[in-house]
Amino acid sequence: MATREADDMSSISASVAKRTKLTQVACDKCRSRKSKCDGSRPVCGKCIQFSTKCVYIAEAGETRGQSIHRANRELQEQLDSYKALFEHLRSGSTDVRVDILAQLTANEPPEEILRRFNKNYQLPVHENATARSSRQQGKHRATDAFEEGGIADGVPALAHAGQEITSTATEDLPQESQVFATSHLNPQAQAAKAELLQRFSCARVAGISDDTQRQLPTGAVHRFGNLPLSSAVQANHYPMDVQVQQMLNLQTHEYAIPSCIWSDNTPMSNLFFSFRDGARKMIANGTPAHVVIGHAPQFDVELFFRDRNDQDPPHNADSWACEVLKSVSDFDIFVLLASCALYTAYMRWNILPTAELYALMPPMIRPTRHQRCLPHAMPLDLVPHPVIREALLGQYRDWLSPGTLHSGATSVGWPYSIESAVSVDSLTGRRVLTNAFIEHATNPDNWSLDKSIRDMYPEIDEDLGFRIRH
């Protein structure tokens, strides 16, 4: 009797133990199916039965909670690596940024990039109080300049037009960045960097070249060639990151590509930037755009013929152009009226660079490809004819100063009277340019110069599209 009871208790205990045996970690498929997993590795019994891929999120010997903590720790380490890379991209020199970007493009892991980075660049342990104070003053100066002068004051530093500009751009960077800017990679790192840059550029170009059916989107334009970047000979004097971008196809909507202008502190530059930046602030503060840019496509020239009074509307692009040009003497009046239309259209687009205003801007005053790529003084953009602007980009000379002999010999060839060029608007009672004059004056083929222009601009040739009067 006692023996039978003992056997029954033993079988019950074994049955309970068999039922309560739990698998420590189930595979993903069994968890999703909510089925019993035997925990066998590398493939559990259920996955063998259903011929499915068996995946465990936990390593052998780990609990599910431990595996989650491990995954979170790995993600945090990866996040810290990306944060460190972004910080170096934000504050590093041109050489540092190109080095990191090239390796990222080559699919190098962030941890490996940081390891190589810390090996090739020596990080400063601390900065003294004097350097920190100087850096803070530099930040305040840069902030004040941006608030007062708008975008124009910062353009030279962004343009990388020469060594002086490059040094100015790095002057206010943190001390860490200045150390990076003056550091040099060892020969092995330089070779690796050149190889990565070559792979980066060539792979991008090859991808473009292989797609024979590739078409540009509507309104987009090519701005640079697609030659691979040479690792031996620099194509121009710009920093490496600029060259990499230039060697790739820059494709964007043409109306959104600004002219690469900067202020040369001349009266014309000051007039342009102060009005443009003030107009942008007015629009940002809620002023309707038409109040600032005028009633496009109409060109109001009322203030070209008289001074402003209290009954005139607020300052806008039309009045700005008129008040600038009516002070110019010894110019043909039709050239000045034509310039009013060109200046107004150009200012409207600079204030509000939309596709509509770009389409309304006469093609002859639109920035050329060189104007969009080469840093230059702002007054150059107001030269009416693109051929002259191209000549000035190569060698900057006086053109816009009032009384300049050669520019005073400009003609638009308008054969009719002033009454045919200017009419009175029936709604506003203000003088505006007629459509016939606008069409004639904004056609570059109607512009001409006296032969004396060759003394100052010997490179100008009639074959380039500019007519010379003999």
From TrEMBL:
Keywords from the UniProt entry: Nucleus
Domain Zn(2)-C6 fungal-type: 26-56
Pfam families for this protein: DUF3425, Zn_clus
SMART domains referenced in this protein's UniProt entry, alphabetically: GAL4
Gene Ontology MF terms: DNA-binding transcription factor activity, RNA polymerase II-specific; zinc ion binding
Matching PANTHER family: B-ZIP TRANSCRIPTION FACTOR (EUROFUNG)-RELATED, BZIP DOMAIN-CONTAINING PROTEIN-RELATED
Protein name, UniProt field: Zn(2)-C6 fungal-type domain-containing protein
